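hiii so um. not sure if this is the right channel but i have a protein structure encoded as tokens and i wanna go backwards to a sequence. like what aa goes where. can anyone help
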């Protein structure tokens, strides 16, 4: 399958959304439930020894590390994961406040307990503003005080992590829901456009994989959503365009609108602004830059728009019945020479017809994930789903409703692997 959009199997869409949010696993993975890892940073060796002894005496399953200066401590935090850091304020070269600021600027959010002189209340305020989790007067330390501070700082951090995780989960579900709704709406209103989106996404994947592009997920997501604007275009007009039939000025004007419509709709969804820019950029003039040049210039929208444009043109020519080599030749003959790396990626497209079997099923035998081999019409000739479209959960419910009502022309022909005869 090219992509899955139904509630029982949203793996591909889920993957694209989570990549966009930067989710690489459980946000709690960085913490230890059974063991504590604590770093002590202090220039006085005797004090470090005393602090480590108090920690090991009062905290079960504690492991400690130590640094004699802020630079080494910062390097240790960059290379290792700690549950808590105890940092002295008064140190030569860099004081604790300077180290604390550098730690936070480096994006390290480990809880840090600052050790200050007695009565440094104004300093304590500055430390808390800079990102300290707590502070303790160095001259008034007790084993109970330090263990309470460590436990409290870790508990506060875990609470914050749970809050952030909950927010990310909510945002993830919201984004997946919004994108799925847009795609399902496209499939219900214009099944031809949805099938087209699936093919374009496949071609984009081939090109981004060929060039090993970073963050390729955004180009694939843009490919899926690039056809949303075609809800406004009658399927008959879309077919005429794909068949390279002569179009009137009004029809050409209608066909020029969907990218801007899709971009406008998608830009209103939080975190999808860059996807909207890619979709909009497919209409920009191309001046002959290669994909690698655009990658080096970090021109994400321009690169994505160009890739999307190539994929759409390839798909349109293929739907006209041209073979792969003829399509590539046509693209090379255009007024602008296309990137040979992208064309080479599309040149690797191969479908072995012997691996594809066709069989007939009734409307109520359809299952999510099946691929239609022919258009599906109601008994009175209304197009419900187009050839090449995959059966999604909303589509299945719609087909069942029509089958039980006005009726559907059966049998329905689907593609099946050789083992499924």
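sure thing!! here u go:
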């Amino acid at each position: 399958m090219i992509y899955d959009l139904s509630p029982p199997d949203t793996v591909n869409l889920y993957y694209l959304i989570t990549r966009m949010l930067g989710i690489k696993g459980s946000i709690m993975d960085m913490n230890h439930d059974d063991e504590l890892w604590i770093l002590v940073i202090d220039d006085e060796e005797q004090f470090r020894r005393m602090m480590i002894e108090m920690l090991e005496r009062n905290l079960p399953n504690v492991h400690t590390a130590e640094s004699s200066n802020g630079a080494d401590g910062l390097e240790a935090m960059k290379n290792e994961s700690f549950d808590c850091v105890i940092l002295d304020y008064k140190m030569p070269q860099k004081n604790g406040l300077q180290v604390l600021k550098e730690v936070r600027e480096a994006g390290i959010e480990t809880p840090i307990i600052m050790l200050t002189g007695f009565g440094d209340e104004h300093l304590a305020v500055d430390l808390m503003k800079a990102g300290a989790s707590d502070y303790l007067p160095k001259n008034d330390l007790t084993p109970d005080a330090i263990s309470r501070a460590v436990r409290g700082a870790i508990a506060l951090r875990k609470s914050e992590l749970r809050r952030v995780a909950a927010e990310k989960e909510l945002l993830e579900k919201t984004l997946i829901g919004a994108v799925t709704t847009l795609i399902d709406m496209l499939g219900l209103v214009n099944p031809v456009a949805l099938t087209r989106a699936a093919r374009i996404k496949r071609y984009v994947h081939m090109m981004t994989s060929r060039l090993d592009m970073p963050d390729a997920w955004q180009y694939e997501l843009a490919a899926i959503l690039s056809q949303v604007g075609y809800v406004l275009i009658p399927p008959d007009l879309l077919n005429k365009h794909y068949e390279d039939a002569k179009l009137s000025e009004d029809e050409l004007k209608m066909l020029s609108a969907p990218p801007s419509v899709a971009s406008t709709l998608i830009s209103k969804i939080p975190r999808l602004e860059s996807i909207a820019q890619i979709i909009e950029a497919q209409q920009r003039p191309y001046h002959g830059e290669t994909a690698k040049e655009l990658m080096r210039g970090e021109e994400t929208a321009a690169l994505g728009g160009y890739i999307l444009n190539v994929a759409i043109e390839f798909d349109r020519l293929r739907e006209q019945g041209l073979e792969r080599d003829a399509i590539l030749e046509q693209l090379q003959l255009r007024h602008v020479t296309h990137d040979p790396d992208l064309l080479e990626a599309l040149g690797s497209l191969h479908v072995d017809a012997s691996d594809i079997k066709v069989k007939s099923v009734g409307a109520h035998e359809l299952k999510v994930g099946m691929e239609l081999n022919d258009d599906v019409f109601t008994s009175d000739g209304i197009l419900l789903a187009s050839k090449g479209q995959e059966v999604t959960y909303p589509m299945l419910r719609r087909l069942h409703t029509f089958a039980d009502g006005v009726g559907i022309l059966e049998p329905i022909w689907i593609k099946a692997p050789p083992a499924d005869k």
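oh and Residues 355-421 form one domain.
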